[in-house]
From TrEMBL:
It comes from the Bacteria. It comes from Streptomyces malaysiensis subsp. samsunensis. Residues 36-292 form the Cgl0159-like domain. Signal peptide: none annotated. Pfam families: Cgl0159 (PF22649). This is Deoxyribose-phosphate aldolase.
Amino acid sequence: MSISVSDLVTVRSRHPEAIAEAAARRVRRPLIGDSGRLMIVAADHPARGSLAVGGHKLAMANRVDLLERLCMALSRPGVDGVLATADILEDLLLLGALDGKVVMGSMNRGGLAGASFELDDRFTGHRPQDIERLRFDAGKLLLRIDYEDAGSLTTMVTTARAIDDMAERRLPVFVEPFISRRTGGKVVNDLSAEAVTKSIAIASGLAGTSAYTWLKVPVTEDADEMAAVMETSTLPAVLLGGDVGKSPQDQEEAYEKWRKALGLPTVQGLVVGRSLLYPAEGSVETAVDTAVGLL
């Protein structure tokens, strides 16, 4: 798909109402389709200032390139939908790329990568009322907990209330929990089995109901430990992709980890971004098709 910046800018500047009109006429579908599995492409990284892929610091900064990659991924068989912030989802709406797709709005983007306030992760993206108004299908939020950073408590409280607000609207919300710590000034997520287990237990108990809560979880460092880790909760879960490394071998190892974890009872699918949109080797089509094949 060839995307024209001038066309998008013309619509945005002269007919901003076109976004709401496109959202109103979008053809919707159930969250879980005929396959019984969920394959979502994620592109909410830029709004947190996370633009790097592998060794390229600004890989995701070219919006047209990103949109072209997203449109390609969404066109592949077995891809159910997309997770992104308002600006990206609205571009995709104007491009007509979201009909019959699951659309997930990214909710808290205030914890900017590298900021002193990174763990006080405010809800600066989609609100529950926005997701409802735009007829989107679900929301996603990130919950990083550092036992040494009081900002994590603020994030926990606002996360719980956001889950309540989504549940009142009967909208699914995907909670991505981590136990995190600062190492050399950088926030690092602990992917040990114990840490992922704790994060799942904490996230599962948030808010006044868990009826509409899904978990978005990483694969542990040792993929063989995922079976015990996922016994921590009965909530449905999807696996996140994360940064799978810079080499084709790293990518293959990530695929193998996903394949093992996808056989577990609570794991319902994948939500993967950079590793499919900017694969270490090969095309977007090949990377996406490989991931779909794992399901």
